[in-house]
């Protein structure tokens, strides 16, 4: 009797050296969004700390990161039908108010209105035209649903409070930040191909949102951080064929 095992691209079975093609990028833009009443009109595009706070609280915090989507689309087209191992690597700078690991979730942000990064660090009222929690472009344009209509604020845009889930494409993989990780430790989140394809090709996708439903607080270095090794990275390894082992 012949048993054929196809080993897919899983965890430690594939290192970068074994990949037939690889894709690595830093963000092209990112922004910290703070939903407290004192910060909802402040821009966090220049913040070095992408701080996440409990989404359902009165002081929610989230972050959007975006990548070179045309380059990503080209890579996904070139590796169509291949096996991918994709991960988002974040370097942790702080963990607070959590006895248990803090789950970090990822989803696509779909908005008819694009956001502008800006360069402020939540220092007062945002300049007109840049992104904040309340508006995609402060005093210029609201966060707006792809099907039409304005969102009251960023959480309303991407989160369906009735369903308790993102409105759009949500990633299945979750990362976890622990006490001790604030010493520049990496947190990796495995990314689905469906999520990446939506990010790369959807007309209305404006990046990936990082959020947590935990009561803890976690901060990650942004693209403004030096050295560059502490910035978020999107890393994809691809193999053209699975390894096949025949057992007799």
Q: Helices and strands in order, then pairings?
A:
Blueprint (H helix, E strand, L loop, with lengths): L2 E5 L13 E5 L3 E6 L14 E4 L8 E6 L2 H10 L4 E14 L5 E9 L43 H5 E2 L4 E2 L8 E3 L8 E6 L1 H9 L3 E7 L5 E5 L11 E7 L3 E5 L1
Antiparallel strand pairs: 1-15, 2-14, 3-5, 4-13, 5-12, 6-11, 6-13, 6-14, 7-10, 7-12, 8-9
Please provide a written account of the structure.
The protein has one domain (about 5-10, about 20-245). The protein is built from three helices and 15 strands. The chain has helices spanning about 70-80, 155-160, 195-200, and strands at about 5, 20-25, 30-35, 50, 60-65, 85-95, 100-110, 160, 165, 175, 185-190, 205-210, 215-220, 235-240, 245. Strands 2, 4, 6, 11, 13 and 14 form a six-stranded antiparallel beta sheet that branches. Strands 3-5-12-7-10 form a five-stranded antiparallel beta sheet. The longest helix has 10 residues, at about 70-80. It is globular, with a radius of gyration of 19 Å. The relative contact order is 0.31.
């Amino acid at each position: 009797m012949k048993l054929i095992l196809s080993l897919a691209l899983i965890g430690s079975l594939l290192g970068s050296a074994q990949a037939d093609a690889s894709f690595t990028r830093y963000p092209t833009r990112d922004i910290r969004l703070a939903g407290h009443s004192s910060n909802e009109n402040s821009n966090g595009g220049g913040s070095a700390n992408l701080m996440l706070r409990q989404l359902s609280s009165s002081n929610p915090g989230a972050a959007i990161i975006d990548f070179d989507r045309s380059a990503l689309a080209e890579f996904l087209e070139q590796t169509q039908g291949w096996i991918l191992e994709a991960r988002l690597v974040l370097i942790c700078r702080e963990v607070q108010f959590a006895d248990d690991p803090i789950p970090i979730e990822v989803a696509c942000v779909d908005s008819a209105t694009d956001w502008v990064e800006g360069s402020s660090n939540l220092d007062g009222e945002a300049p007109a035209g840049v992104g904040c929690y309340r508006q995609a472009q402060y005093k210029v344009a609201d966060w707006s649903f792809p099907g039409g209509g304005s969102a009251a604020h960023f959480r309303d845009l991407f989160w369906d409070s009735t369903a308790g889930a993102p409105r759009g494409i949500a990633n299945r993989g979750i990362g976890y930040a622990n006490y001790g990780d604030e010493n520049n430790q990496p947190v990796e989140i495995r990314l689905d191909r469906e999520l990446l394809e939506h990010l790369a090709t959807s007309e209305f996708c404006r990046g990936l949102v990082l959020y947590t439903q935990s009561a803890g607080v976690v901060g990650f270095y942004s693209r403004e951080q030096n050295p560059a090794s502490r910035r978020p990275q999107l890393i994809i390894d691809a193999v053209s064929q699975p390894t096949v082992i025949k057992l007799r």
